[in-house]
Amino acid sequence: MTRLVLSGISKSYGAIQALSSVSLVLQPGEVLGLMGDNGAGKSTLVKIIAGNFPPSAGEMRIDGETVVFHKPRDAQRQGIEAVYQDLALCDNLSAASNVFLGREAMRSLGPLKYLNYRRMNEVAADLFRQLKSETRPRDLVRKMSGGQRQAVAIARTLLSQPKIVMMDEPTAAISVRQVKEVLDLIGRLKDHGISVILISHRMPDIFAVADRIAVLRRGELVASKPAAESSPEEVTGLITGAIDAA
Which family does it belong to (predicted)? Predict the structure, then answer.
């Protein structure tokens, strides 16, 4: 069954049309590379899928069921998680504490409740093993590389057993070695049958992991095709308008 179907998604802010009738399909375990210039509508589309705000028009279906989100929690209940560019990690906390941030495991001692660090460390360690990451649960985030920080953010999404993970510029401002770590993490998500929507300006990263590429230009979808049937040159032309559509 198709994992996600967007039909005629539009979004306007007064006279400004951010998205115009965008229709996309995402399969289970598929990596979709979402590309476009600044202001093309990528972030708006992702925030609609993530439940940050509703579309002005259009329909969204997950596993064949029509869904309407009023807040991000609604999207999370349907198995949608987002990893934004700032990662929203707390530098002064451990990897495990960040994985469980806002969803802490608790223990009870009579009327008292306290954090169950042992449980959180055990679960976080298992998630890092699934991702084949060298990140350790007790490591402080402030001492981590960019690749390790991404591992923590991705592990946090796995806590809810997601169907779809959306990643916004995960390889921006990190080293070449760390880029490979992050692309490997995306591959692990795919291996677990999780669909990934990857937003990136880095063409080599998109073509390294994406099964399908979608290009937005001025709020309109101008291409959605298998990555193997496209090229960096074609995508560049689609982004700039040198190529009208593909």
Answer: Belongs to the ABC transporter superfamily.
Q: Which residues, in sequence order, are CB contacts of 118 under 8 Å at separation 6+?
A: none
According to DSSP H, which parts of 131-231 are helical? 146-158, 176-191, 203-209
β-partners of residue 80 are 164
For 114, the enclosing helix (H) or strand (E) is strand 112-115
Contact 168, 33 (CB under 8 A): no
For 85, other C-beta atoms within 10 Å of its C-beta total: 13
Q: pLDDT for 45-81, tens place per residue?
A: 999 999 999 999 999 999 999 999 999 999 999 999 9
Quote the CA–CA distance of 172 and 31 in Å, as a whole number: 18
Closest Cα partner for 70 from 46, 57, 51, 50?
Answer: 51
CA distance 121 to 99: 9
Beta-carbon contacts of 150 under 8 Å, excluding residues fewer than 6 positions away, are 83, 87, 170, 174, 178, 181, 182, 185
- 0.85 surpassed by pTM: yes
Long-range contacts from 125-129, C-beta under 8 angstroms, 24+ separation: 125/96, 127/99, 127/155, 127/158, 127/159, 128/95, 128/155
What pLDDT digit, counting tens, does each position of 9-37 carry? 999 999 999 999 999 999 999 999 999 99
Q: How far is CA 34 from the centre of its chain?
A: 11
Cα separation, 169 vs 87, in Å, equals 10
Superfamily of domain 1-79+162-246: P-loop containing nucleotide triphosphate hydrolases (3.40.50.300)
Candidates 44, 85, 100, 70; CA nearest to 174 is 85
